[in-house]
Write a structure and sequence with these properties.
By secondary structure, the protein is α/β, with parallel strands linked by helices. Helix content is 45%, strand content 17%. Bound molecules: D-glutamic acid. The site of D-glutamic acid (DGL) has 16 residues, from helix 3.
Length: 255
């Protein structure tokens, strides 16, 4: 039985691992958080491709054959190229492509949905593209929330600067009368409670739907093991992870 790889730039992907663990409790998961290169959202497409390729190579060495992209940014800008690059070697489960079809369920014609995401995801237009395939009568407003990832990685949830930034971004959703908010970066579920207090609408977490997709194609077999690897600051990673997991050990890998 081989393990399932799960990757992200940092602790964000743990919000997806949480859903995966609920969906497939017996599976063994190896999580990689690329804390040396976080945030991915302000990097170029080429940089994001290279960082992710290196993680996939690390997974290959560990005999991992199925990898979950617990990262919207990677799914938006590097998935197609990486699928091609690792063809017949690694089976990839991308986030946006797996979850976006569910995002418009229950919405009506001309309703607006706001996709909060990193700069790279917003620029890619991937949420708009995937939603349009399912329903082109829904308005999609993409909001670049650069800075949210740092709030989560550095745990500055209570700083006035952080709250002001969250309010400023949600105001755009309010101005557009958004009926639903997509947490279009896996770091954002850490901020969901704060966001709901500021703008109380329906929040959509793509991670839940990605986990459903994975559950439909992989078996619930294994010893239920979890292993964690990071490319920098394992202690900080463990502290920031606490919202979702109490991690005893995160191993440092030089990528
Ligand atoms: N959590 C990732 C995402 O879903 C990456 C965020 C970042 O590193 O900018 O997009």
């Amino acid at each position: 039985m081989t393990n399932i790889g799960v990757l992200d730039s940092g602790v964000g992907g743990l919000s997806v691992l949480w859903e995966l663990k609920k969906a497939l409790p017996n599976q063994n998961f190896i999580f990689f958080g690329d804390t040396k290169h976080v945030p991915y959202g302000t990097k170029t497409k080429e940089e994001i491709f290279t960082y992710t390729k290196n993680i996939l190579e690390f997974f290959l060495e560990k005999n991992v054959r199925n990898v979950v992209f617990a990262c919207n940014t990677t799914s938006a800008v590097a998935y197609l190229d990486l699928r091609e690059y690792f063809l017949n070697k690694i089976n990839i489960f991308p986030l946006i492509q797996s979850a976006a079809p569910y995002a418009v369920q229950g919405l009506k014609e001309n309703d607006t949905i706001a996709a909060l995401a990193t700069r790279a995801t917003t620029k890619s237009g991937k949420y708009e593209e995937e939603i349009r395939k399912i329903n082109d009568k829904i308005n999609v407003v993409s909001i670049d929330c650069t800075g949210f990832v740092e709030i989560v990685e550095n745990r500055t949830y209570d700083d006035k600067k952080s709250i002001d930034l969250i309010k400023e971004k949600l105001q755009i959703a309010k101005d557009n009368k958004a009926k639903r908010i997509i947490l279009g970066c896996t770091h954002y579920p850490y901020l969901a409670a704060i966001m709901k207090k500021i703008y109380n609408v329906d929040y959509f977490d793509p991670g839940y739907y990605l986990a459903k997709t994975v559950k439909n194609s992989l078996e619930n077999k294994g010893e239920g093991k979890l292993e964690f690897f990071v490319s920098k600051n394992p202690k900080e990673f463990i502290l920031s992870a606490k919202t979702f997991f109490d991690i005893e050990k995160a191993q440092l890998v030089n990528l």
